[in-house]
Amino acid sequence: MAQPAPSSAQAPTPRHVAIIMDGNGRWARQRNRPRTFGHAEGVEALRRTVEAAGEAGVEYLTVFGFSTENWRRPAEEVNALFDLLRLYVARDLDKLVREGVRVRVIGGREGLQRDIADIIGNAEARTRENAKLNLTIAFNYGGQDEIARAARRVAEDVSSGKLNASDIDAKVFETYLDTDDLPPPDVLVRTSGEFRLSNFMLWQSAYAELVFLDVLWPDFGKDALALAIDVYRRRDRRYGGTTSESA
Ligand code: FPP
User: Which of these, 63, 122, 71, 115, lies nearest to 97 by C-alpha position?
Assistant: First the structure.
């Protein structure tokens, strides 16, 4: 018979928290402001969340900043999102370096403006030795695109003789993903009350606990992160096996 899930006092802090930062547009609309205002406030929420994740002992924080599908939005909004990445790195990189945060950006690099590719490369290089918190920004990222890009590289390695087709299994395949050096997320949080993955970390989230919060992203911060962690800690993770309590 199923046992009660562990209480939050016993269960560990998630090592890797992934977040779909949703609801910026609705937050702005509620205030009769343009959607871009909501995104700008979303950056403030991101800054609060990076701080709070470090304090909570989370080792990996991965956030969805711009999806391969977001190119369908009006050019003005797309440009605003690119500007916010520029602004975030310009304002916060020195602090992130000082505070031991390692920055990574996952997603396709093709189609990105040259200065954005340089900003990403510089942020990754300057924080490479940091280890307190791993902040990964998914930018121009889509899970299906990531898997297709990985499959292309696998095919290239097979045709060049570097890899035997018979050696390909899940363990080998995932070394070709953008997240090669990250553990899988323990918990995947989506804000704004929507119940979708929207092409985020499809492979990596196979056993992530999904937490959907009814809070718009610009209102997110320390309290909402603590709530998400608390919900996660009450879950019983079984990875396809039997309940952890009866093991
Ligand atoms: C979803 O809200 C949010 C996004 C598409 C972008 C998330 C970006 C930020 C939080 C800004 C920080 C980004 C970086 C890269 C530093 P939505 O626009 O879909 O909201 P809606 O569903 O209410 O319309």
Answer: 122
